[in-house]
Structures are given as C-alpha cells and as structure tokens.
Specification:
Blueprint (H helix, E strand, L loop, with lengths): L9 H26 L5 H32 L1
Length: 73
C-alpha cells in the first residue's frame, strides 16, 4: 500500500536545501578566491559553472518554497 502524500515538512526541507546550497556556493567562491592561481583554467571554469548552477538552484528552490507555503495556507 502506498504511503499518503505528507507535504507538511516540505518547506523545512527546501529551506535546508537552500541553506546547504548557499554554504556550498560560499565555500566554492572562497576556494576560488584563495586558490585561483593554483588551478588550471579548466578547473576554474568548472567551479565557476558549478557556482552558476548553484545560483540557479537557489532561485528555483526559493520559488518552490513560496509555492509550498501557499499550498499549506
């Protein structure tokens, strides 16, 4: 038998995901600032691309939080 759809903690889970992604972005940017001279151009570009995807994910997650909050009201 399938479990019922329990969305009561979706907002909290999404907020945790946003916070974790923000922390990863900050760590990566700090790493780039501190070690960019030691990295190859390809490594720098890879990290830059990952950070752009993180920014996009944060934006998407925040929109999803708004949607979930509206559903719960």
């Amino acid at each position: 038998m399938a479990k019922p759809d329990d969305r009561s903690d979706n907002v909290a889970k999404l907020q945790d995901a946003v916070q974790n992604t923000i922390e990863n972005l900050g760590e990566s940017e700090h790493y780039l600032d501190e070690h960019s001279v030691e990295l190859s151009p390809q490594e720098t570009q890879t990290l830059t691309n990952k950070n752009e995807k993180r920014r996009e994910a944060i934006s998407s997650l925040k929109s999803e939080i708004e949607d979930e909050a509206n559903v719960q009201e």
